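>> Question from a student workshop board

For tomorrow's exercise we were told to take the sequence and the ligand below, predict the bound structure, and bring the output to class. My setup keeps failing. Could a helper post the expected result so I can at least see what it should look like? The ligand is copper (II) ion.
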Amino acid sequence: MHRARSALLLVALILFASVPAVAQMGDMKMPMDKPASTALTRQAYTTNRAFLVKIVSIPNPIPYEKYFKLGLEVYDGGDPSKKISDAQVKVAAGMRHGMSSGFMHGMQSTPKVDVQNGVVTVSGMYFHMQGPWTLATTVTSGGKEGVAYLQLPCCAQ
Ligand SMILES: [Cu+2]
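>> Workshop helper replied:
Here is what the output should look like for this input. Compare the format with yours to find the bug.
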């Protein structure tokens, strides 16, 4: 009886202790806290195949704990040779840490999107943790909207 209650208490303690650990993960050195071995995704279709998003410029390697920018171009998913110059693009970057969708955490910066001559420049990117990051780009054009996910490995030492 007493032993069962101790075990329950232990489980409760472990659960309780793990909550702040997740919340503070951005500051912790985790086993995953090493340069990503995954490759950079150079291009990706939106999940509905409406658009193809290509990375046209990015620092190689991506700097660690430094601001950087990257350039994107959007193409017609049905005809990838057709560039779409007037697409509206929103971005969000984060780390999944094994999650199949969504982010375990985002960046500590707010990226800014600027479109000029059909090139989408995303500035204010900042990776504060080593490992694979995901850039979600939401593209809107011609009444269609789609989200493409690009994998960005972090980082240079
Ligand atoms: Cu992380």
